């Protein structure tokens, strides 16, 4: 707390609440979680766009028998794609404020929590194994009593030596009758029995390689923040749900664009309103339609990337993301100018209104594909089901 807190507490803390309000703590946690979600949204969107562009270009070059004279996406067009996907998408996703559902899920993904538990269990087990391998032999109470008696004789001998008498030659403290070293635990924490009583076998507790008891490995790591930080596995940025989105969108968009490039019947989609046979396969206007479709596929997928916890309502919080809406609108306007007036620079030709309609319609198909991927029972969301239903409302 910045007002009531002491200076020592402020120096030791990583976050200082200036107004001493717990509402500020909730706000800070919400924005902190939003940062991680923003990074994951951008990764989901960026990897999909790059994977689709790379696969379409590579497969088209292979199908053209290695010829790169004419490709669906040219170098200048890919430069525009990178500007849209890198700077534009980053600003659109980063400027979106966190929603109320950010506080509905736990602090870590289920797979991360399972990995931490497995790592702690493995560390404790390894410590116990090392301690058992390096531990001393069993020590009986009789041997411990002999060691204690030898230690007392040694102490008496030192006193005699100090007074000029000769000290008896006995084993030093901590050694058995034959001078064997005893474990420290056996000499310091051993309950000896009577000489006539039965000897009970005791063993030293197993220790880890660091000298700590194996069963206390996890507790020692928790007591030392630095050791706990090093022992904790890194949080995975790509969750199973993100992998589902990446694989599904990449396969769909790549397959759709390759069909539009290679399938002769696909030319009929673009020839409506034009004389039959006027649109050349793999020509400038054909590839302009492919480029236009690819751009609108990514702009529509940007809407999918906003929701990475299987929420069904893609429009939730869209009005609050004013910067993102303006960026998408600006990208669409610039795309119109590039296609209609790019000419030799972007290697495009003007499209007819029907071709524009088909390109936009095909691009928007990535939204229903995103809905279908959300319904697939692959991966496990960090957000509870009730919270997802509330966020989707």
Keywords for this entry:
single chain; 393 residues; mainly alpha; Calcium-transporting ATPase, transmembrane domain; 2 domains; two-stranded antiparallel ribbon; 16 helices; elongated; disordered C terminus
Proportion of residues in extended strands: under 5%
The H/E string reads HHHHEHHEHHHHHHHHHH
Radius of gyration in whole Å, from Cα?
35 Å
Separation, N- and C-terminal Cα atoms: 36 Å
> Helix fraction?
55-70%
CATH-level-4 superfamily name of the largest domain? Calcium-transporting ATPase, transmembrane domain
Based on the structure given, which CATH architecture of the largest domain is correct? Answer: Up-down Bundle
Largest sheet composition: 2 strands, antiparallel
Overall pLDDT: 73
| Low-confidence region ranges | 132-145, 157-218, 387-393
CATH class categorisation of the largest domain:
Mainly Alpha
Strand tally = 2
Tell me the strand order in the biggest sheet. Answer: 1-2
Helix-strand category: mainly alpha
- CATH topology assignment of the largest domain: Calcium-transporting ATPase, transmembrane domain
> How would you sum up the global shape?
elongated
In total, how many domains does the architecture comprise?
Answer: 2
Instruction: Give the helix tally.
Output: 16
């Amino acid at each position: 707390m910045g007002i009531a807190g002491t200076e020592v507490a402020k120096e030791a803390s990583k976050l200082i609440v200036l107004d001493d309000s717990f509402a500020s703590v909730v706000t800070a946690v919400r924005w902190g979680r939003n940062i991680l979600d923003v990074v994951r949204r951008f990764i989901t969107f960026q990897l999909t766009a790059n994977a689709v562009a790379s696969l379409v270009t590579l497969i088209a070059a292979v199908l053209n028998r290695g010829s790169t004279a004419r490709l669906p996406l040219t170098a200048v067009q890919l430069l525009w794609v990178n500007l849209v996907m890198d700077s534009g998408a980053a600003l659109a996703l980063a400027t979106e404020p966190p929603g109320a559902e950010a506080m509905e899920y736990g602090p870590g993904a289920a797979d991360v929590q399972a990995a931490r538990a497995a790592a702690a269990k493995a560390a404790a087990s390894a410590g116990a194994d090392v301690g058992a391998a390096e531990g001393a032999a069993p020590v009986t109470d009789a041997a411990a009593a002999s060691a204690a008696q030898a230690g007392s004789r040694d102490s008496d001998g030192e006193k005699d030596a100090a007074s000029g008498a000769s000290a008896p030659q006995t084993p030093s403290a901590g050694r058995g009758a034959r001078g064997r070293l005893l474990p420290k635990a056996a000499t310091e924490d051993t309950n000896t029995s009577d000489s006539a009583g039965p000897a009970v076998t005791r063993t030293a507790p197993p220790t880890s390689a660091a000298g700590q008891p194996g069963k206390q490995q996890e507790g020692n790591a928790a007591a030392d923040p630095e050791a706990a930080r090093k022992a904790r596995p890194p949080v995975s940025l790509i969750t199973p749900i993100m992998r589902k989105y990446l694989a599904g969108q990449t396969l769909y968009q790549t397959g759709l664009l390759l069909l539009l490039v290679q399938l002769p019947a696909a030319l009929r989609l673009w020839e409506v309103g034009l004389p039959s046979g006027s649109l050349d396969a793999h020509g400038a206007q054909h590839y302009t339609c492919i480029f236009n479709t690819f751009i609108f596929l990514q702009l529509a997928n940007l809407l999918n990337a906003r929701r990475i916890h299987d929420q069904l309502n893609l429009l939730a919080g869209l009005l609050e993301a004013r910067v993102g809406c303006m960026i998408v609108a600006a990208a669409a306007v610039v795309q119109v100018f590039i296609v209609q007036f790019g000419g030799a620079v972007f290697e495009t030709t003007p499209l007819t209104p029907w071709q524009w309609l088909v390109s936009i319609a095909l691009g928007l198909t990535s939204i229903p594909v995103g809905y279908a991927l959300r319904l697939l029972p692959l991966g496990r969301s960090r957000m509870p089901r009730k919270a997802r239903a509330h966020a989707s409302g």
